[in-house]
């Protein structure tokens, strides 16, 4: 039967609850209480000799320490350094004040935290969710506690336990830690932070938030049949006693992390991952005595965020954070890498490699995950391009970062270091080439789309200004804006309709609200526009007709007709001539052209009216519109030759509708002007 090892001068077996120190001479282990060494003093001992070895090797010696701080001068002092995690440190940390995390933490409801929200707003700041409702997360009942963890996971499962005072870790069975947790005399502060339980029975009662499952590379892109198993990083159980402390760190692989407190409370100290802060962090972490320096003292701001029972916190990629547990706490967490933070994830991964940090919560096979994601992005981009759709900008940016990493990992001098994480049946050179091609295609389409949108905006502005300056006189510009609003309303509905232009002679329109007639009882024709224009400024007037409109108003109507390629000499006179024979002869010659199907505004190439407008302006004698110009009598414009194919169906329909709507408005304006003129000349009774 095997004997149990015994230690110390008391010759007792190892007891996890008691502090022990090793003799540098005989290599035996001794209980601190047996040899008179306090646990808090142990880090200051450089060479320790037990009572027996002191006789031959001399007394123990202490370390000479430096008091490092943010404003350190480099000179050593005799002041004893404070070990991060020690009781003195925890007491000082509790007494300090920090900026509130309200300045950086976004507070959302569970149902608000969706993929659409993150795609629109990004995931660059911590997110706090007060209640788990709507998060799609599953948690045990509030009565669930540490003993239940032991039952679901198994008492003999080995766990990594952190000695908070020393900031060191050791192995222990879960049953042993549970016994320590429930003991009334805790001589040490022990902390369990990496109990990954996705392969245990507890997996069935804990589910990560839905947004995490939607984003996670491991959940979505890692093949189930891959030779390398999926990284076990999605579900952690955290069992922390009062005064537990985890020093500042960045999650491995630049992963984002979520925390949900089932019982107790946690305090997070958060530092933004700016370039300056990341450089300071790398320098601090690489220092041999970083456990004696509080990193928050080296940065401009460190925010304090308290996570209470029932709340959930999401920390983005790259954020430097430390965690204090003010009361006994049971919490759950998980790590996830995703497409929203590819650049920061890659940067944190490079820092991690340079530091060669050994952590209790690694992200195994991070590069393998990247290869699977690269293959997914290639197929996704191909599908989007085939459907004539554009990938989201963050996906394009992430693909460029990943493909750049692929090139670096597959270089001849670096391949030996990275080839172990290359997935099976993966052709890296072909993937890099094909993904680069799809990225270039996405950027070209993005550039073309932006240029087209800019051109459309410029054309709309240019068209509006050109019409005002070249077609409309100053006192009729207000008519144009009203017409244009009606025109816009009718364009969409009339682009694909065939116009029927009635060339038969009609009696004079008596109603002010002339109705627009379309084909089959609803199509509009030029006749209505011209008939309406007769009221507001036509060529011929009968004895009983109203007084003609001002020359400027007449020119406005003529300008509208000119843009529709209907000259006043033909379109105004022929259909409305009192001579029946003249009407009949002209109607036959015009019937074919007037009933044609004209191109819509959707085709720029088929619309010479708009294509040549900017060029005409340079050679035109028209004076551009100036709001300060003196208004004078309008000069009749020269007739412009009609061009074949220049008619646009939507313009004709819009002009007809606009003229019909304006006919009674302009008449009303004219009467008001006459009334004002009568009042000024004291001739109101004579004229009216």
- Give the CA-based shape: elongated
| Largest sheet descriptor | 9 strands, mixed
End-to-end Cα distance, whole Å, is 131 Å
Spans of 5+ residues with little confidence (pLDDT < 50)?
Answer: 66-78, 489-527, 532-547, 564-622, 627-632, 683-688
**pLDDT averaged over residues:** 76
Oligomeric state as shown: single chain
Total number of helices: 23
- Strand fraction band? 5-15%
Rg estimate, integer Å: 41 Å
General description of the model:
This protein is α+β, with helices and mostly antiparallel strands. It is built from 23 helices and 17 strands. The protein has helices at 32-35, 54-57, 87-95, 115-121, 146-153, 174-182, 210-215, 217-221, 275-286, 342-355, 366-386, 393-409, 412-418, 428-470, 477-494, 526-537, 551-563, 568-572, 580-594, 608-611, 613-619, 649-680, 684-687, and strands spanning 20-22, 29-31, 45-47, 61-62, 106-108, 127-129, 158-163, 168-173, 190-196, 236-240, 244-249, 256-263, 265-271, 303-308, 312-315, 320-325, 329-336. The strands form four sheets. A nine-stranded mixed sheet has the order 5-6-15-12-17-10-9-7-8. The protein has a four-stranded antiparallel sheet with strand order 11-16-13-14. A hairpin with a 6-residue loop joins strand 1 (20-22) and strand 2. Helix 12 runs antiparallel to helix 14 and helix 17 packs antiparallel against helix 22. The radius of gyration is 41 Å and the shape is elongated. Residues 66-78, 489-527, 532-547, 564-622, 627-632 and 683-688 have low confidence and may be disordered. One of its GO terms (biological process) is chromatin organization. Residues 497-511 have a biased composition (Basic and acidic residues). Keywords: Activator, Centromere, Chromatin regulator, Chromosome, Dioxygenase, Iron, Kinetochore, Metal-binding, Nucleus, Oxidoreductase, Phosphoprotein, Transcription, Transcription regulation, Zinc, Zinc-finger.
């Amino acid at each position: 039967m095997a004997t149990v090892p015994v230690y110390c001068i008391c010759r007792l077996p190892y007891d996890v609850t008691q502090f022990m120190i090793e003799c540098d001479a005989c290599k035996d282990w001794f209980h601190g209480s047996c040899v008179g060494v306090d646990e808090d003093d142990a880090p200051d001992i450089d060479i320790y000799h037990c009572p027996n070895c002191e006789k031959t090797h001399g007394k123990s010696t202490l370390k000479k320490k430096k008091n490092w701080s943010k404003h350190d001068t480099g000179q050593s002092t005799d002041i004893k350094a404070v070990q991060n995690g020690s009781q003195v440190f925890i007491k000082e940390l509790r007494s300090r004040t920090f900026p509130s995390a309200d300045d950086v933490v976004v507070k959302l409801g569970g149902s608000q935290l969706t993929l659409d929200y993150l795609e629109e707003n990004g995931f660059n700041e911590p997110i706090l969710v007060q209640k788990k409702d709507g998060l799609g997360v599953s948690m045990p009942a509030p009565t669930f506690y540490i003993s239940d963890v032991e039952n679901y996971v198994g008492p003999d499962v080995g766990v990594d336990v952190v000695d908070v005072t020393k900031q060191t870790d050791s192995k222990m069975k879960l049953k042993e830690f549970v016994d320590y947790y429930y003991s009334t005399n805790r001589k040490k502060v022990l902390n369990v932070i990496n109990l990954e339980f996705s392969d245990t029975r507890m997996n069935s009662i804990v589910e990560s938030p839905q947004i995490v499952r939607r984003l996670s590379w491991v959940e979505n892109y890692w093949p189930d049949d891959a030779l390398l198993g999926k990284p076990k990083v999605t579900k952690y159980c955290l069992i922390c006693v009062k005064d537990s402390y985890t020093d500042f760190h960045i999650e491995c692989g630049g992963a984002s992390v979520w925390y949900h407190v089932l019982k107790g409370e946690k305090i997070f100290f958060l530092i933004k991952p700016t370039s300056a802060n990341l450089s300071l962090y790398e320098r601090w972490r690489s220092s041999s005595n970083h456990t004696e320096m509080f990193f928050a003292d080296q940065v401009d701001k460190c925010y304090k965020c308290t996570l209470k029972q029932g709340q959930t916190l999401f920390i983005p990629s790259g954020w430097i954070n430390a965690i204090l547990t003010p009361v006994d706490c049971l919490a759950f967490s998980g790590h996830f890498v995703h497409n929203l933070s590819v650049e920061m994830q890659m940067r944190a991964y490079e820092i991690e490699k340079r530091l060669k940090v050994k952590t209790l919560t690694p992200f195994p096979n991070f590069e393998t995950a990247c290869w699977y994601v690269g293959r997914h992005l290639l197929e996704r981009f191909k599908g989007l391009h085939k459907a004539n759709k554009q990938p989201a900008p963050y996906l394009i940016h992430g693909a460029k970062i990943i493909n750049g990493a692929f090139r670096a990992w597959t270089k001849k001098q670096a391949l030996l270091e990275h080839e172990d994480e290359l997935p099976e049946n993966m052709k890296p050179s072909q993937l890099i080439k094909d993904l680069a091609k799809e990225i270039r295609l996405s950027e070209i389409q993005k550039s073309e789309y932006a240029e087209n949108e800019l051109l459309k905006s410029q054309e709309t502005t240019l068209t509006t200004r050109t019409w005002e300056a070249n077609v409309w006189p100053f006192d009729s510009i207000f008519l144009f804006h009203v017409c244009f609003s009606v025109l816009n309303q009718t364009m969409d509905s009339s682009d694909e309709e065939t116009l029927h232009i009635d060339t038969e002679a009609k009696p004079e329109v008596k109603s002010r609200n002339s109705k627009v007639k379309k084909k089959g009882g609803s199509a509009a024709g030029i006749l209505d526009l011209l008939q309406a224009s007769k009221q507001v400024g036509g060529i011929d007037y009968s004895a009983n007709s109203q007084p003609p409109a001002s020359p400027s108003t007449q020119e406005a109507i003529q300008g509208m007709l000119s843009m529709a390629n209907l000259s006043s000499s033909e379109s105004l006179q022929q259909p409305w001539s009192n001579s029946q024979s003249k009407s009949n002869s002209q109607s036959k010659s015009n019937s074919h052209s007037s009933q044609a199907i004209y191109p819509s505004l959707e085709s720029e190439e088929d619309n010479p009216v708009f294509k040549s407008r900017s060029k005409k302006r340079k050679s035109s004698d028209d004076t551009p519109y100036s709001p300060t110009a003196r208004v004078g009598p309008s000069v009749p414009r020269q007739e412009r030759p009609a061009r074949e194919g220049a008619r646009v169906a939507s313009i004709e329909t819009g002009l007809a509708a606009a003229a019909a709507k304006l006919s009674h408005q302009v008449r009303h304006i004219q009467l008001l002007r006459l009334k004002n003129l009568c009042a000024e000349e004291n001739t109101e009774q004579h004229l009216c």
